[in-house]
Amino acid sequence: MLCAAAVGSALVGCGGDVVSEVGGGGDCTPSDKKVIGWDWPLSSLEIYEPFNKKVTAIAQERGYQTVTTTNDGDLQQQVSDLEAWVAQGLSAIGTYALEPSAIEPIGRRALDNCVGFVSYGTNLENQDAAVEFAWDRSGAELGINAREWATKNGGPLKALVLHDRDITAGKERDDALMAEFPGTASNVEVVSHQRAVDTASGESVTSTVLQAHPDLNMVLAYNDDVAIGARQAFINAGFAPNDPNVYIGGQDGSPSALRLLKENGIYRASSAVNFNDLTSTVANTIVDVAEGIDPEYGPLNFSVLTPADPGQVEEFLAAYN
Questions:
Q1: 259-269 average pLDDT score
Q2: pTM for the complete prediction?
Q3: From the centroid of its chain, how far is CA 109?
Q4: Residue 268: in which H helix or E strand, if any?
Q5: Quick one: pLDDT at residue 121?
Q6: N or C: which end of the chain has fewer CB within 10 A?
Q7: Sheet harboring 157-163: ordered strands across?
Q8: What's the topology of domain 2-133+274-301?
Q9: CATH fold for domain 135-272
Q10: DSSP per-residue string spanning 64-128
Q11: Do residues 116 and 25 touch, judged by C-beta distance below 8 A?
């Protein structure tokens, strides 16, 4: 689930929890610069470029120019980029904090200088609004789907779980996934639990595990890029693309993952939010904050996309066009 909420007072957020009681720019006059910043420091992901383009287009429709970052997981670079935007006096900034404690002081300076500050994916103490994800639901839904597949498949199965516990979203996804998987599927043995953050590392780690466990059946991954790498490792090891005894699952609903789901092969699931809904919520929340409007969007729920519902897969894929 995803939601956006203003935080000038104690407001109800995702799941009925209080989002925050700390607000910032209540006495500020909206900037006449009409420039927003969108900082999503995960440039290696397949959906990075279409995400930025869509946010930029939506903001432009509302009369705002968008500047973006090209960082890929470098916290020091993220801090530098955000500090520069605050100094430049942008109308508002949206950011996915790689390490929330490092971004809190920047959020405070932004609020003190009447620069709108929107947190994506987590709640900060110093923010005007948050676009929040129930990251745990994404991991849990993938875990449930994988458990159900394993139970239906029967026979002894071996699984690899690929995580990125170095970031908040990755930890929450992994905790929730492992709470559901293997769960009641007593025929599953998780033989390895390792970090992988992109397609290359997903392929490399999976290849290594396959050498030690050539009878590996399942890979559950932190995101689709990692899962696609895992799938390639299976193909390289001689598995058929439609092997009925192999399950690969990811998260985020990237275009390549959705196309693989349409093939009805070993790539069997992706937990995702509709791309149109996601980008609209992000862009409009940042612009609303820039204009002094309380944003109210969502909630948006994660859906587990599978070949069993080709219409839903096609709908999510069409959102990228």
A1: 97
A2: 0.82
A3: 26
A4: strand 267-272
A5: 83
A6: C
A7: 188-195, 157-163, 218-221, 247-251, 267-272, 303-305
A8: Rossmann fold (3.40.50)
A9: Rossmann fold (3.40.50)
A10: -EEEE---BS-HHHHHHHHHHHHHHT-SEEEE--SSHHHHHHHHHHHHHTT-EEEEESS--SS-S
A11: yes
User: What is the side-by-side strand order in the sheet with 92-95?
Assistant: 65-68, 35-39, 92-95, 116-120, 129-133, 2-6, 296-300
What CA–CA distance (Å, rounded) separates 234 from 253? 20
Helices marked H in the chain: 48-61, 75-88, 100-112, 135-153, 168-180, 199-212, 224-236, 255-262, 275-290, 310-318
Which part of the chain is CATH 3.40.50.2300? 2-133+274-301, 135-272
One-letter amino acid at 198 equals: D
Burial of residue 241 (number of CB atoms within 10 Å: 0-12, 13-18, 19+): middle
Which is more confidently placed, 162 or 170?
A: 162
